[in-house]
Amino acid sequence: MAEIVVTGGTGLVGRHLLPRLLEAGHGVRVASRRPDAAALPDGARALGWDGVQLPSEALARSDAVIHLAGEPVFGGLPSAARRAKIVESRVDSTQALVQAIAALPEEQRPGTLVCASAVGYYASSGDRELVEGEAPGSGFLAEVCRRWEAAAQSAESLGIRRVSLRIGIVLAREGGALGAMLTPFRLGLGGRLGDGQQWVPWIHVDDLVSLIAEACLDPRYTGPVNACAPEPVRNAELTRVLAAVLRRPARLPVPAFALRALLGELATEVLGSRRVLPERALSYGFDFRFGELEPALRDLLVAGP
To answer: How far apart are CA 304 and CA 160, in angstroms?
Structure first.
């Protein structure tokens, strides 16, 4: 069994990941800003950090680090202060993490770093299929992702296996993008975004957790790996299926100009088309439990409590 350090362990994905790691018998240390008050599952040990700097001793003699922490991109208006927090929580924290690893004696360093990234790395590309070898796009989020992955990649100079998971929209009943969509859709106020023709890469949270765990332990995983289901959908299809699962109408589209007025340049992240495919995960034999959208949404919204 492995000794694993996790950042972002109390976030949406982390809350699903920690029990999975513990159930598999791994030792789990969780970086938390409030270690004395962190709501962690039994068996997980809290480590104190400030969201950027993690003491080297917290990483000593671990086998792997899973770095999930990051300020939500759509957690508020895209002000300069918020954008600075997004960069700090992703790029700066990853740089600091690698520096903390480098400060350890070689025999005490973890052998693996699995770091979150996002499909926002890619340019909006219409109907073209996007796999891991594509060049990065331009714009704020693409530049953040490029720098984020470069910071993680610097760990390779220390002899550490690095995996950057380019994560699509995470579907989970507790929150995230799906949680934000549920209230308007349940009120019959849902609708497509813009013309609805943009491709949306998505992943069920259970599949994401399985992929993180596999990438952490399987030495075949290296470099960028697309963490999204093998069947991306257009936004109009996402709208239709979600409305059908909830048995509600979805007749109120959100015009592109309204999204641009609200989100500024971040509007391109919801209006852009990214037909991202998980080529590397599939080549390694990863088995997606939820490869299609409707069964994923029914599992989350109908079969669950």
So the answer is: 39
